[in-house]
Amino acid sequence: MNWTPDDTWIALTGALCAMACSLPGCFLVLRKMSMMGDAISHAVLPGLAIAFLVTGERASLPMFLGAAATGVLTAVFTQWITRFGNIDQGAAMGIVFTTLFALGLILIVQAADHVDLDPGCVLYGAIEFITFDTVSLGSTEIPRAALVNGGALLLNLTVIATLYKELRISSFDSGLADTLGFSSGLLHYLLMTLVAVTTVAAFESVGSIIVIAMMIVPPAAALLLTRRLLPMLLLSSAIAGASAVLGHWAALIVPPLIGFERTNTSGMIAFTAGLLFTLAWIFSPTEGLLRRRADALSSADGTT
Amino acid sequence: MPTPHEILSTVLLQSYNTRVVVLGTAMLGLASGITGAFLLLRKRSLMGDALSHATFPGIGIAFALMVSAGGSGKDLPGLLTGATISGVLGVLCMLAIRNTTRLRDDVAMGFALSVFFGTGAAVYAMVQTKPGAAGLESFIYGKAASMVFSDVVMISTVGITVTATALLLLKEFTVLCFDENFAASTGWPVLRLDILLLVLVTAVTVTGLQAVGLILIIAFLIIPPTAARFWTNSLRRMLVLSGGIGAISGWLGASVSALFANLPAGALIVLTAASIFLFSMLFGTARGVVLKLLDQARLQRRIGRQHLLRAAYEILETMNQPVSNQPIPRQRLLEHRSWSNPELSRLLTQARNEDHIEPGSNPAQIHLSESGFGEASRITRNHRLWELYLITHADIAPSHVDRDADLVEHILGAEMVRALEAELKPRPVIPNSPHQIPSPS
Q1: Does A241 fall in a domain?
Q2: Which ipTM score applies to this complex?
């Protein structure tokens, strides 16, 4: 294995992105909306297409704004359909994101006469190539993706630290939040905005696979290890960061072992997160499979 | 723009290509509409999403195995087997998480989706260096418009098998969907049924993936059943409707796509289904939004009228005994309940339109009409009867009974009132209020 400074940047950016995604992901998991990251990363397609059709170029900022706006709209439409149609949130989410994605496909086909805007490339930003797009900061060259994801992480940290109490109450008991006088609806949309901004920032720079996985898997693993919110947030960030670093490392060493040349870092990061989750699932001291087995055995002993 | 003749010949399936595409998508719409209905009722609509992503690693690994065995690697049955195995593994992983942790369905699905999808991406990147790997991804993003006859045969075979199995096990699946615990406690093999249902979904998903692509198959599993749910509360009718909506979306969407060169069929079918969904959500006869709003408005009007008339009667009671119909000062009505001024004006206008108030009288003096007075006595009587019932039979304190009675009295039917009369045999025709009525102070 040959670990270069580029690899350090890739692992660092991956870790920043993973932690940025896992923070709002904790709240999504608690609110039974874990599929939101997946939904948003599909649903932003029409936003990208419209931004492109309006401005006529593939500039970052209008694309980013278009995508983030559609991401928030996904959450809003999902909420409306859930409330007014009185149907399951998952179904509402599925309807909204497939419809928006279909709309985006049609728009992109119309735009494709002008430029190559490939849905595949929208969904697979590539973390391997971040070091080709750098920004000079003082004397060092920093990958733009590291700055973007670091910014998203900072934004998420700030908002969650400022509104920690409110977010906590409204996640566990939205009725109580309303009676205490802060609107759980408003907080919901704020959280959804965070999710949309983080998702778009991340998949535009490093690809959607990391986003979808990091919004669900580290929070789910953390939830198996603790029942308190603050430890859950910390643990899930730690698991997310560890998945990114270990994942990139695995992406370098695993393919030669089984006779291939290279693999995809994003995919390996998701895979590593899955492994870490499995460890928590088996060995969690409070509710892991082993613990459950031991409890079942000891209670069986107790009765005989 | 297509000519009317072209439109007609496309919609009536006169061209061979259109016939193949329309038949295939309609068949798939039918099969996924029916299986999707069970998923919706089990609140697992996104299962199609999770499953279709979970097939990724299987396809890559199947390709790699077939290449190293000396084959072409693009052998369709081989790839489908790989996809199915990995999809089923994804499902089992989901069920294991759900059944052995306290994480819920959505997390379990999200876990399988993202980890399998990520693993799939890693596997793809590895096998990409093998010869002939180009275009392997298009297997996942299939194009509805390039469907050929053999695809239709496969879709129809799978579709008919899945539909027949679902209908044969209709009773079992119904119990599973509506009350899993009941099913388990009466000895149904719940876990095996659950797995079987998910195997059916996997079959539909894998077939659909290859033929029409990822997004369309996800949409096909979710949108038709959800749309059907707005029209009926019966599972059988919902299954029929859901299958029908899926088939119609496939037919219409594929037809329109055949008419316009640069509109992709998959996207159009999704949009057609979404339009049907929107229409159903608004105008559905069982749970549609418009009907629900109308019902609510009607109930609000009735409650408003009953509150106004009862307030008038209670005021008349304090003005004279025995109660007779007299003009009531508007101010006293306003003070009697927590009405705002505009609210009371709206209620009075409504009562005037319903002929419960004498028309053209002095606006500061409300005079009930003959029918209004009769209605007011009847409503007050129902309210008091219900209060007495609650006091004697439900042990509710007289001081608290007013609010409780208020919740129910608006829906007391004639039969209920007769039963209350028989039960309580009130001596005066209108019993006195069991509690003190707050008087304006």
Answers
A1: no
A2: 0.90
- pLDDT digit string, tens, across residues B155-182: 899 999 999 999 899 988 998 888 888 8
Question: Which one, of B257, B30, B11, B244, lies nearest residue B147 by Cα?
Answer: B257
Task: Count CB-CB contacts under 10 A for residue B92.
Answer: 13
Chain B residues 251-270 within an 8 A CB cutoff of chain A: 262-264, 266-268, 270
Distance from CA of A102 to the nearest CA of B (A): 4
How confident is the model at residue A44, as a pLDDT? 84
Say which of B104, B107, B121 has its CB closest to residue A266. B121
Instruction: Return the closest-CA partner of residue B10 out of B259, B272, B267, B246.
Output: B259
Q: In whole angstroms, what is the distance from residue B382 CA to residue B378 CA?
A: 6
> Does B103 contact A220 at a Cβ distance shorter than 8 Å?
yes
Could you tell me the residue range of the domain that residue A17 belongs to?
A: 5-213
- Higher pLDDT pick, A233 / A188: A233
Cα distance from B215 to chain A (closest Cα, Å)? 6
Q: Report pLDDT for A303.
A: 59
B residues 124-163 near A, CB within 8 Å? 124-127, 129, 137, 141
Of B117, B126, B218, the CB nearest to A255: B126
Distance CA B232, CA B241 (A): 9
Q: Give the model's confidence band at A123: pLDDT under 50 very low, under 70 low, under 90 confident, else very high.
A: very low
Q: Work out how many domains chain A is built from and give that number.
A: 1
Q: Are A127 and A14 in contact (CB under 8 A)?
A: yes
Question: Residue A180 carries which side chain, given as an amino acid letter?
Answer: L
- The alpha carbon of residue A296 and the mean position of all alpha carbons in its chain are separated, in whole angstroms, by 36
What the block records as the tokens of B345 is: 């004006």
Among A155-159, A183-187, A263-267, B142-146, the range of highest mean pLDDT: A155-159
Q: What is the distance in angstroms between the Cα of B293 and the nearest Cα belonging to chain A? A: 10
Say yes or no for a CB contact (<8 Å) between A102 and B263.
Answer: no
B194/B375 Cα distance (integer angstroms)? 56
Token pair listed for B243: 């299958």
| Residue A291 placed within a domain | no
Mean pLDDT of chain A: 86
pLDDT > 60? residue A118: no
Residue A90 lies in a domain: yes
Query: Domain locations in chain B?
Result: 11-218, 292-424
Q: How many Å apart are CA A283 and CA A294, to the nearest integer?
A: 11
Give the chain A residue whose CA is nearest to the CA of B123.
A263
Q: Which of A92-106, A254-268, B396-410 has the highest mean pLDDT?
A: A92-106
Residue A248 within any structural domain of the chain: no
| Residue A142 CB coordination number (10 Å) | 17
SS3 of A216, please? helix
CATH number at residue A153: 1.10.3470.10
CATH of B11-218, one of 3.10.180.10, 3.40.50.360, 1.10.3470.10, 1.10.287.1490: 1.10.3470.10
Chain A hits for B117, Cβ within 8 Å = 209, 212-213, 270
Determine the Cα–Cα distance for residues B193 and B173; give it in Å rounded to an integer.
7
Fold of B292-424: Arc Repressor Mutant, subunit A (1.10.10)
pLDDT tens for each residue of A162-220: 999 888 888 888 788 888 887 778 888 899 899 989 988 887 778 888 888 999 999 99
pLDDT top residue among B128 and A233: A233
